[in-house]
Prior knowledge:
7-stranded mixed beta sheet; binds magnesium ion
Amino acid sequence: xxxxxxxxxxxxxxxxxxxxxxxxxxxxxxxxxxxxxxxxxxxxxxxxxxxxxxxxxxxxxxxxxxxxxxxxxxxxxxxxxxxxxxxxxxxxxxxxxxxxxxxxxxxxxxxxxxxxxxxxxxxxxxxxxxxxxxxxxxxxxxxxxxxxxxxxxxxxxxxxxxxxxxxxxxxxxxxxxxxxxxxxxxxxxxxxxxxxxxxxxxxxxxxxxxxxxxxxxxxxxxxxxxxxxxxxxxxxxxxxxxxxxxxx
Length: 248
Ligand code: CTP
Ligand code: MG
């Protein structure tokens, strides 16, 4: 009988948050009294089938150890790399020997604190039995333009068939490791796992996610993320108490 595939998670959290700015990297910015990274990890840890979460941290990171999630027995850390895909590749190596090729690995940006556990379950359910894997994504809703250097429209791009890639992205361990290794060999820069997997000639499945799974990129995104999390807390007493103690 084939063994049941297990589920591991990876959180790249070694970025510098240059576009966000501020004193600390954005994954440690406060969001309703908790660092952004706590929220992102919390959404993954809320799913019992996640066996372990490997968090890739920048060298000399002393903030992570202070998070309550750092003491969770399912959480471990590894050294991040100079680019996002190198951080993910290091975390995959940290699982080498433990994760089997057919096991699932879910990669989720530290900078996406509004991930709802229902979206994690949705992704897992949609990919059950899938040989490749896939990602949460959203069909593009706005009209798209290409622009010239002068800031004027060159043309309008039909949005039909265009999607925005979100995280988590979930692939078989063997497929993702092979994809990222090939990517490094060819010295190609990729900004998500799916594009590395596509380069193998495979076609990841697009799974429609929630629109509120935003990535904190610019300073204004923090207020938006706070509003999203607050809106989701209406019927939750513990969260309401937290909200009263919150700083923003
Ligand atoms: N990341 C990482 N290792 C890197 C670069 C990025 O683990 N060398 C992580 C970030 O911490 C973030 C995620 O990848 O959780 C998505 O990247 P992005 O939003 O670009 O974050 P930063 O690279 O930190 O931001 P910026 O590009 O503005 O500097
Ligand atoms: Mg970046």
